[in-house]
Amino acid sequence: MTNSSTFDEMLGHDDSVRTPYKRFNEWFCGEDAARLRSKQREADTLFRLTGITFNVYGRSEAEERLIPFDIIPRIISGSEWYRLSRGIDQRVRAINAFIHDIYHKQEIVKAGRVPVEMISRNEAFLPEMIGVNPPGGIYTHIVGIDLVRTGPGDFYVLEDNARTPSGVSYMLENRETMLQMFPELFSQNRVQPVQNYPVNLRRSLAASAPDQTQNEPVVAVLTPGIFNSAYFEHAFLADQMGVELVEGHDLKVENGRVAMRTTRGYKPIDVLYRRVDDEFLDPLNFNPESQLGVPGIMDVYRAGGVTIANAPGTGIADDKAIYSYMPEIVEFYTGERPLLKNVPTYRCSEADGLQYVLDNLAELVVKEVHGSGGYGMLIGPTSSKKELETFRAKLKARPGNYIAQPTLSLSTVPIFSRAGLAPRHVDLRPFVLVSPAGVKVTPGGLTRVALKKGSLVVNSSQGGGTKDTWVLED
Amino acid sequence: MLGKTANGLFWMYRYLERAENTARLIETGQRIALTRLEDRDEEWSSVLQSGGVLNAYTQANEAVAKDTAIDWMLRSKANPSSVLSCIETTRQNARLVRAALTGEVWEAINAAYMDARNLLSRRVGERDLPNVLRSLRQSTALVRGMTHGTMMRNEVYDFARIGTFLERGDNTARILDVKYYVLLPSAGSVGSSIDNVQWETILRSLSARGGFRMEYGHGAGPREITQYLILDKRMPRSLAFCASKLCDNLRYLHGGTRKQMPSLQQVSQLERKYLKHDVQAIFDYGLHEFVQEILDQLSEISKQIEIDFRFYE
User: Do B1 and A263 touch (CB under 8 A)?
Assistant: First the structure.
């Protein structure tokens, strides 16, 4: 039984199997639970073997861990996806236009739609990017839009990831694993493929190369190194694209180009897909202590000698305070009504907002403006009195550091538990590629699922798991 | 290819080779200990020495004793050449160069790592030792097999091979260095057939018994063993074989067009100067001196490869 106020994507509100899940349900009913349990173990072995692990910060013992994978797919119909992907396309175009505007004329500020202090006092604003024109005019080559669902047609954007969204390797490996374990499911259902992502990523990056690039652009992935929590993904993407995986110490600036040290000398790079934060990108221009970056790369970038994807300074578009302005931002740059909904957001930087949040703390979710990974947030309804009081003090001390949102009734999708199917809350991160050639939304994305009953926290660092996400061909 | 990647591949395959060599040394030591009646612990000193880990062992442990010696070589974290350490280092390097490897090679090394962690999570008792060693050698052999069967023959492969043969040559030379005295013609008094325990130790530690028997039957002695392990180019662990493979792969890396790099010159010279003689010349020169020079040269070549191919800068 599902809680009637919660929307279950398989069983709806009334325990009748929804259309996208019909075929799957027929298959599932004919399956033996013991066989499925052994398949679940098989999946774990496959993941261990491919080494798709993540490193958890602050834990010395279990240095590599698997993200739990659940074998029940999350299924979205083609028409549902069509509406979603149009909304994503619109939002991503707006984000790109917004960042360009912020580092150029700031029309949106002049028009009074976004307050100037939201920009000028924003930690993610990079003065070094003012007036810079990135190759092809693209700032956010790779975007992850985090969505949640509350009803049949109700999707909300929870967060825009415009810096270095991660998780795409899980999207791909989850599908690969399902294909290996349940080939019959893919004969019975017409599932839109995601496997082209690495090819599309490479094309998209190549299309964003500096104008003067003559031959096939040289692309490389820049990783902070083997100890980074997402190292597996960096290596995976480099491998799948067939490009080099580099670290800061493999690179130097030479003759106005960024070049990598090969066995035959230095070779210039045209496009750098960096998975290193802005702050560490260039010790000469940003954090002088950084060992992860390339001294002088920003100077090459500003002169148009290399494409950095995503561009430095894109964080301005994905902090949680700017998020609350996204409906205005979408309208301002596209001239259209936003197709995707925003979650109502209270800004603690504003006196009214702060007061409301303090008064209603037990009903709200409070997040750090620059936080991620589920760290440093408060979920009012599930917090103890003491936790609420501690957080109240934090809010008063640094109100500008927080925003708050009502707790949404997140949809559930069943997981395969010991007792059979059991509903668990999910979110969805579709991955979007942007280049001068256009916007490409991969059908599906990464579904994260809170494995604990009733839990709303889906982050892998906090005990969440993942599922394969199907978009059906209607 | 990145210099860093070449470096990672080189060490990945050196450590993979070393893991196998160490496992084989333990197997040999155990075999000898079981079939001899006296001097058992002395034999383990010699095994540790062949593995190049005797000094570190005596610093970390008290007297040389069988169980401690086996544990040290099999699973000690303090010993970078223990089988477990070698497999961990192999995988660490494989992670670094993940994008240069095929999925098959990566999965094989990952499986070898999981097996090793599992098999070596606690001290291995005498009863389980043969099976554990067999599993370890099989899982590392699978990595080699996948490398052979799935990797493109390009510079990635060349660096994998260079690491393999440098380590293998070094291992063969080290065993000869420790045991040279039993191969000297003047020492030929002890026994006169392949049953001689010391000769058998050498051949076993290099997986050379079968090949040697096929080639020489049972009547051969130290002269033939020396010939076989140093100069025979058909024997896949002989010094001549390793040097010739090193030469080939370095030459492929040059692609024939560029001027010869110092490392290739050094290997060619090693081949020409040391490995084209007949065995009598080696005895005349002094077997021990000969082997030590080879060891020095291999170490120089390793350093030169790092420079020639920009492993670090």
Answer: yes
Minimum distance, in Å, between the CA of residue A251 and any CA atom of chain B:
10
C-alpha A456/C-alpha A192 separation (Å) is: 28
Which residue do the tokens 């394969």 mark? A468
- β-pair type (A431-435, A142-151): antiparallel
* Nearest chain B alpha carbon to A234: B99
Contact A221, A244 (CB under 8 A): yes
Question: E-assigned strands of A289-419?
Answer: 307-309, 341-342, 346-347, 364-368, 378-379, 402-406, 412-417
Q: Exposed/middle/buried for A11, CB within 10 Å: 0-12, 13-18, 19+?
A: buried
Of the partner residues B1, B107, B309, the one whose CB lies closest to the CB of residue A49: B107
Supply A90's token pair.
């619109």
Give the pair of three-digit tokens for residue A97: 């236009």
What percentage of chain A has pLDDT greater than the value 70? 96
Hey, CA dihedral for A192, A198, A203, A204, is it positive or negative?
A: positive
Is-contact A93 A435, C-beta < 8 A?
A: no
Grouping H, G, I as helix, E, B as strand and the rest as coil, residue A246 is strand
The verdict on a CB contact (< 8 Å) between A239 and B110 is no
Instruction: Give the DSSP letter string of B210-268.
Output: HHHHHHHTTS--HHHHHIIIII-TTSTTSHHHHHHHHHHHHHHHHTTTSPPPHHHHHHH
Q: Do A49 and B313 count as a contact with CB atoms less than 8 A apart?
A: no
CB contact under 8 A, B2 and A48: no
Q: Is B313 on the interface with A (CB under 8 A)?
A: yes
Average pLDDT over residues A29-37: 94
Query: Is there a contact between A235 and B98 if contact means CB atoms under 8 Å apart?
Result: yes
* Mean pLDDT on B281-293: 93
Q: Cis link prior to B7 (omega < 30° from 0)?
A: no
Q: Which residues of A touch B96 (CB under 8 A)?
A: 226
Look at A263 and B6 and tell me if their CB atoms are within 8 Å.
Answer: yes
- The torsion angles phi and psi of A397, rounded to 5 degrees, stand at -70, -45
Q: Which of A269, A295, A271 is nearest to A282 (CA)?
A: A295
Collect all residues of chain A within an 8 Å Cβ-Cβ radius of residue B3: 250, 261-263
Contact A261 B313 (CB under 8 A): yes
Q: Which residues contact A339 (CB under 8 A, 6 or more apart)?
A: A83, A86, A87, A90, A91
Given a cut of 90, whether residue A289 has pLDDT beyond it is no
Determine the Cα angle at B21 with ends B17 and B25, to 5°: 170
Could B114 and A48 be called an inter-chain contact, meaning their C-beta atoms sit closer than 8 Å? yes
Contacts of B103 in chain A (CB under 8 A): 50
Whole-prediction pTM:
0.89
- Mean pLDDT, residues B138-151 taken together: 97
**Backbone dihedral region of A106: left (phi > 0), alpha (psi from -120 to 50 degrees) or beta?**
left
Indicate the average pLDDT of chain A. Answer: 92
Backbone φ, ψ for residue A307 (5° rounding) = -95, 130
Report the pLDDT averaged over residues A94-118.
95
Chain B residues with beta carbon closer than 8 angstroms to that of A50: 103, 106-107, 110
Higher pLDDT pick, B230 / B38: B230
Q: Return the residue of B nearest to A232 by Cα.
A: B95
Cα separation, B152 vs B186, whole angstroms:
49
What is the mean predicted confidence (pLDDT) over B45-59?
A: 89
Partner A, chain B 250-289, Cβ-Cβ below 8 Å: 253
- The residue behind tokens 């396309």 is A89
First vs last Cα of chain B: how many Å apart? 14
Residues of A in contact with B253 (CB under 8 A): 263
pLDDT tens for residues B78-132?
999 999 999 999 999 999 999 999 999 999 999 999 999 999 999 999 999 999 9
Q: How far A246 CA sits from the closest chain B CA (Å)? A: 8
